[in-house]
C-alpha cells in the first residue's frame, strides 16, 4: 500500500490541520458555488422509512446491494480536470467529500452536511438505479455485546451484507488503531472486486486498489455500545451533543462517529481515512445511524431541537477565533451532486428537502 497517513494517525492529522487551517483561514465558508435556487419539494406526506439492515428481508438486502453496484458502474459526472481518478456516479460523491473534508468535520454543520450527503446518495440509488427502498442503517449497538461478536455482524455477511474483514497485516505503528485485526483486501461479499481509485486522503488522481478493512472489535466495544449512545443523546443542547458525537481527532477521544470509522477501517481500511471514507459503502450505513442518533436526540424535544444549531463554521474553531458559529442560514454544497441547501433545510427529516423517517429511535 502507498504511504497512508490515516485519519487515525494523530501527528499527521495535526500537521495537516495546521496546513489546512492556514490555507483556509481566509477562504470563508463552504457557501454554495453554483447559487442553485432553493426550490423546495412538495410537503412530505409519505416519507420513506429507513430500517435496520438485519430487519430487511434477504430480497431487500440484495436489492440494496445491487443498487449500490449499479451506482458504482454508472458513468460519473465529475470532469477529469477536477478529479482524474473519478469514474463513476458513486465516486462523484466521494470526490465531494474529499474536496470538502476540512470544511465539514469538527464544525457545527458536520451532522447537517452528512444528513444531506446521505440523503443525496439515497436519492441517487432510487432515481438513477431503480432502488425502491430507503437507505438502511446499521445499529452497531446490536453487535458489540460482547465485542467478539463484531465480525459476525449481519452487515459483514458475505451474501446478505457488505462482506467482511481483510486478512491480517502485521504492523506495529505507534498510531495503529488499537485492537485492529485485519488490514488486507476485503476477501468476500459483493465488494470483493471493487476498485477504489480515490484517495488515499485528498489524492484525486486515481490510485486503483482493492477495498480494505481492518476491523477492531475492541474499538467497537469501547465506542459503539448503548452506553456511548446514551451518553451522546443525553446532552442538553446541540453544541454539546455534536461534540460528544464527533469526539476529537485522537482515538482516545473518539465518539460514535470515530467509533464507527475506526472499528471498521482500523489503520489500513478506507473507512479509517477521514477524506476518502465514503469509498467503502459501509460509510453510508454508519452515517445513517449517526443521523438516526441525531434524530433520536431531536425527537426528545422537537419543539426546541428542530432549530437548535451551533458550533464553529471553521474546523475545530471552538473558540470562534477565525469565524463565528454556524446558523440556520449557513449554506452547504455537495458539489454537482445536488443543489445547494442551508442548514435549515436539513433540520427536519420530514420537511423541506428531506422526506424520510426511521422505523425506530433510540
Ligand atoms: C462503554 O462500555 C465499554 C465496554 O465496557 C467501555 O470500554 C467504555 O469505556 C464505556 N463507555 C462509556 C461512555 O461508559
Ligand atoms: C458557539 O457554539 C458553541 C457550541 O455550541 C457554544 O458553546 C457557544 O456559546 C456558541 N457561541 C456563540 C457566540 O453563540
Automatic annotation (TrEMBL):
The keyword Transcription does not apply. The lineage of its organism: Eukaryota, Fungi, Dikarya, Ascomycota, Pezizomycotina. InterPro entries: Di-copper_centre_dom_sf, Tyrosinase/Hemocyanin, Tyrosinase_Cu-bd. Residues 1-27 form the signal peptide. GO terms for molecular function: metal ion binding; oxidoreductase activity. PROSITE patterns: TYROSINASE_1 (PS00497), TYROSINASE_2 (PS00498). It comes from the Eukaryota. It comes from Polytolypa hystricis (strain UAMH7299). This is Tyrosinase copper-binding domain-containing protein. Transmembrane segments: none annotated. Keywords: Copper, Metal-binding, Signal. Residues 105-122, 280-291 form the Tyrosinase copper-binding domain.
Amino acid at each position: 500500500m502507498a504511504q497512508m497517513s490515516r485519519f487515525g494517525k494523530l501527528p499527521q492529522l495535526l500537521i495537516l490541520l495546521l496546513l489546512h487551517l492556514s490555507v483556509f483561514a481566509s477562504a470563508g465558508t463552504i457557501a454554495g458555488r453554483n447559487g442553485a435556487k432553493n426550490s423546495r419539494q412538495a410537503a412530505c406526506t409519505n416519507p420513506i422509512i429507513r430500517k435496520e439492515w438485519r430487519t430487511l428481508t434477504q430480497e431487500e438486502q440484495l436489492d440494496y446491494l445491487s443498487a449500490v453496484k449499479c451506482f458504482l458502474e454508472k458513468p460519473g459526472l465529475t470532469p477529469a480536470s477536477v478529479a482524474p481518478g473519478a469514474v463513476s456516479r458513486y465516486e462523484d460523491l466521494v470526490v465531494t467529500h474529499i474536496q470538502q473534508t476540512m470544511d465539514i468535520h469538527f464544525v457545527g454543520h458536520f451532522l447537517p452536511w452528512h444528513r444531506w450527503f446521505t440523503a443525496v446518495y439515497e436519492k441517487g440509488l432510487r432515481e438513477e438505479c431503480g432502488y425502491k427502498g430507503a437507505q438502511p442503517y446499521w445499529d452497531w449497538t446490536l453487535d458489540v455485546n460482547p465485542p467478539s461478536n463484531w465480525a459476525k455482524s449481519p452487515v459483514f455477511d458475505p451474501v446478505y451484507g457488505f462482506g467482511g474483514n481483510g486478512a491480517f497485516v502485521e504492523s506495529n505503528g505507534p498510531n495503529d488503531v488499537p485492537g485492529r485485526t485485519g488490514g488486507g483486501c476485503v476477501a468476500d461479499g459483493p465488494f470483493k472486486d471493487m476498485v477504489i481509485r480515490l484517495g488515499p486522503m485528498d489524492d484525486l488522481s486515481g490510485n486503483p486498489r482493492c477495498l480494505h478493512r481492518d476491523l477492531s472489535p475492541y474499538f467497537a466495544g469501547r465506542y459503539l455500545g448503548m452506553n456511548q449512545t446514551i451518553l451522546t443523546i443525553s446532552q442538553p443542547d446541540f453544541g454539546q451533543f455534536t461534540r460528544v458525537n464527533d469526539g476529537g481527532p485522537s482515538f482516545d477521544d473518539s465518539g460514535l462517529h470515530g467509533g464507527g470509522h475506526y472499528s471498521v477501517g482500523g489503520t489500513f481500511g478506507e473507512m479509517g481515512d477521514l477524506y476518502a471514507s465514503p469509498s467503502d459503502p459501509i460509510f453510508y450505513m454508519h452515517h445513517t445511524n449517526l443521523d438516526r442518533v441525531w434524530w433520536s436526540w431531536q425527537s426528545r424535544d422537537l419543539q426546541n431541537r428542530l432549530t437548535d444549531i451551533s458550533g464553529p463554521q471553521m474546523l475545530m474553531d471552538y473558540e470562534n477565533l477565525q469565524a463565528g458559529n454556524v446558523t440556520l442560514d449557513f449554506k452547504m454544497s455537495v458539489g454537482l451532486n445536488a443543489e445547494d441547501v442551508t442548514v435549515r433545510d436539513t433540520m427536519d427529516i420530514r420537511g423541506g428537502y428531506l422526506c424520510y423517517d426511521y422505523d425506530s429511535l433510540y
